[in-house]
Amino acid sequence: MTPDDATSATRDGTDRTSENAERRGPERRRRGLRRRLIGRWGGSIARSLAVRVVGLSSIWAAIALVAAGILISALYRQAAEDGFAALLEAQLYNLVNSVGIDDAGVLTGSPNLGDLQYMQPESGWYWEVLPASRDTRGRLSSPSLGYSAIPSEPLREVPFDVSYQRSYPMKGLAGEDLQVLETEVVLDDENRAARFRVMGNRSELAEDINAFDRQLAAYLGAVAAGTVIVNAAVILLGLRPLRTVRQSLARIRDGRAERLEGEFPTEIAPLAAEMNALIGNNRRIVERARTQVGNLAHSLKTPIAVLTNEADKLGGESGRLVGEQALAMRRQVQHYLDRARMAAQTESVVFRTPVAPVAERLVRVIGKLNPHLKVAFDTNEADDLIFSGERQDLEEILGNLLENAGKWARSEICLVMRPAGPERFEAIVEDDGPGLSEAERKLALKRGRRLDEKTPGSGLGLSIVSDLAQEYQGSLRLETARLGGLAAIVSLPRLNGVDALT
Amino acid sequence: MRILVVEDDENLLRQLSEALTTAGYVVDQASDGEEAHFLGDTEPYDAIILDVGLPVMDGISVLERWRRDQRNMPVLILTARDRWSDKVAGIDAGADDYVTKPFHIEEVLARVRALIRRAAGHASSELECGPLRLDTRTARVTVNGSPLKLTSHEFRLLDYLMHHQGSVVSRTELIEHLYDQDFDRDSNTIEVFVGRLRKKIGVDLIETIRGQGYRLHHDA
């Protein structure tokens, strides 16, 4: 079974299981989905730190402010009512002091309580002095009251207290609420007495208290709103480093960064450090696993070599069978080595590989492997070139091209590297060998990775180069060399000067 | 031609040795780095096939030590690692060529032949000395175009002389390169084989230089 068969088999397998699940209960699944969605939405709200903190702090702010409001309102009402009662009492004393009685028992005096409200009719502020004994006559009243009368509560309902005062609510002339304060005073030695009544506007008091309550509520409401906003702002600001961490992690997952970078607040810094350690550890584990896969794959190569050679010697049907199996094993080994390499590649971060040192090493090696050849490398333009990729891949590309050229060249190989636009460079490997015809060139690029080394030199290794170049969005093309043989031209990405410095 | 094969896998070592012996080489074997280093350091091999992954001392270290001690015999390394960085490391350590595992024996034989030829300064795979021709790829010998039937001992002797034609080859050198390390060096077999070769070739190409050895050459 080829690796492709293996993967497609697994894919089919998974598809089948999910199909079964679908057939088993679409209804149940749908209901479950809805519940899950609601649950997830509610769950994510409840799990949100910001929502929790803002919610809790808002509840607390509301409770505290309502309690404060009730207390302040109560205190104010108390104070206002005390003041109202004290005012009435003071007016009553004033009234008592400014009223007398003449010898005929007629009430005299023109009290002025110093408040204009007693002058305005139906203002709700009244006073009145009435005879309270048989031989007393006359009636005095505030201009606001005039000849109208405010009824009294019967004495048995509201008796006088120890200081001979009584107070009760009553309806006023215009329907307003009144508070009446009454006392009876003996005015002369003949025990002639008068009843003194002072009435204050309770509706005004209530209105005053209500106005205060409304203002208070407005203030406290503003404070509550401010508290919630400030809390929300603080928590969102405080949680911002977490978002930075999340973005950093996403960058790491995308392969754009290797570790969490940046300054984190004291509370988050240990978390970031732990995460970096975890990422490092993870990377080491993956690296170790990859190395082990590599070691396993490489260690299989010797037994496969033994099998291959034994099969060659054996010959016949069984020899052919063993040889085929050995070849299949070899393909698998190569397949997994390639996959490990590609996995490593996608994970790696930013590459910059100076081109010239790699090329020089390879030219030296090819020169040594082919002592009869002159291997020329023009370093003029290669010095500043930086390949935007992994060193090993550049080595594979140049190594295979040079090796191939070495296989076919008669006396000379030439490697030229030069920039091709701001983002690419070209490596050109030429030889003076027989070259390839148009048709052969096409075939050379198509032919799969050389696995059969029974006929040394039959493979060209060019398809490997082509595959690698494509991984870097590059290309390989074959032309006729100036030297007469084949010219292999591979185009690869490079970092330009500015990038190279950073 | 005497070759040292260093490989820790028993089966592969056996296969390589058998194939090389069949191809007419004299083969010594080593299965760990230390033994390999000792043999390569003391015996005059015409080529060494060296596995990179060896117990005790790895192949690259063995190779580096030989080269440090000015041992310049051609070395072909066998490696499972087929990345260029591995190949470059091997060549930089002093290898002359490499074969990646898994391989067919023929490939190794071809590389070894080429290495020995190159070391002796021959570019072509066909060695020539007057009417005498030796094709290193097919191990066929012809005189004036007609094939010569040689025993394996005779072939080895002629092969060595052809590779070193023009220079004087001592009897000790021949023994060292044509027999493995257990061979009794006092025997007179070399003289016997040289005599037989002269008779088979018919043309007098092998010159005896008294007190020094033999020289294969052709006066044009």
TrEMBL record, chain A:
Pfam families: HATPase_c. The chain crosses the membrane at residues 49-76, 216-239. InterPro entries: HAMP_dom, HATPase_C_sf, HATPase_dom, His_kinase_dom, Sig_transdc_His_kin-like_C, TCS_sensor_his_kinase. The keyword Transmembrane helix applies. It is found in: Membrane. It comes from Fulvimarina manganoxydans. One of its GO terms (cellular component) is plasma membrane. Residues 236-287 form the HAMP domain. This is histidine kinase. Residues 295-496 form the Histidine kinase domain. GO terms for biological process: phosphorelay signal transduction system. It catalyses: ATP + protein L-histidine = ADP + protein N-phospho-L-histidine. Signal peptide: none annotated. Residues 12-25 have a biased composition (Basic and acidic residues). Residues 1-11 have a biased composition (Polar residues). Keywords: Kinase, Membrane, Phosphoprotein, Transferase, Transmembrane, Transmembrane helix, Two-component regulatory system. Residues 1-29 are annotated as: Disordered. One of its GO terms (molecular function) is protein histidine kinase activity. Its EC number is 2.7.13.3.
UniProtKB/TrEMBL annotation, chain B:
GO terms for molecular function: phosphorelay response regulator activity; transcription cis-regulatory region binding. Residues 124-218 bind DNA. Gene3D superfamilies: 3.40.50.2300, 6.10.250.690, Winged helix-like DNA-binding domain superfamily/Winged helix DNA-binding domain. GO terms for cellular component: cytosol; protein-DNA complex. InterPro entries: CheY-like_superfamily (IPR011006), OmpR/PhoB-type_DNA-bd (IPR001867), Sig_transdc_resp-reg_receiver (IPR001789), WalR-like (IPR039420), WH-like_DNA-bd_sf (IPR036388). This is Two component transcriptional regulator, winged helix family. The modification 4-aspartylphosphate is found at residue 51. One of its GO terms (biological process) is regulation of DNA-templated transcription. Residues 124-218 form the OmpR/PhoB-type domain. Keywords: DNA-binding, Phosphoprotein, Transcription, Transcription regulation, Two-component regulatory system. It comes from the Bacteria. PANTHER family: REGULATOR OF RPOS (PTHR48111), RESPONSE REGULATOR PROTEIN CARR (PTHR48111:SF37). Residues 2-116 form the Response regulatory domain.
